[in-house]
Specification:
Order of helices and strands: HHHHH
Radius of gyration: 16 Å
Distance between the termini: 32 Å
CATH class: Mainly Alpha
Mean pLDDT: 85
Helix content: 55-70%
CATH superfamily: Cytochrome c-like domain
Low-confidence stretches: 1-18
CATH architecture: Orthogonal Bundle
Number of strands: 0
Strand content: under 5%
CATH topology: Cytochrome Bc1 Complex, Chain D, domain 2
Amino acid sequence: MKALYVALLAGVGIWSAGAAQADEALAKAKGCMACHTVEKKIVGPAYKDIAKRYAGQKDVEAKLAEKVIKGGKGAWAKELGAEIPMPPNTSVKPEEATKLVKWILNLK
């Protein structure tokens, strides 16, 4: 029984890691990683900083998913030291944007 429990926990860990890698792969495929990384700012803010800023905010997923597709500017001007616009990414479908945002918001 103990072996079964350990195997189930290992399976959950592998599934979770696979989902995280798949979403990072989607971010790379859609060109998001040209301006963002998980850990540190490049042109845009780090994904972990985005997760921290929006943690616990109601209805933020839809707002950020729309921003992924339509772009924006000014939201991170203070942290970035300049008003750097985020260009629209029309190659990202709405369901992909939602998946990316959920992944970002779950980063710790």
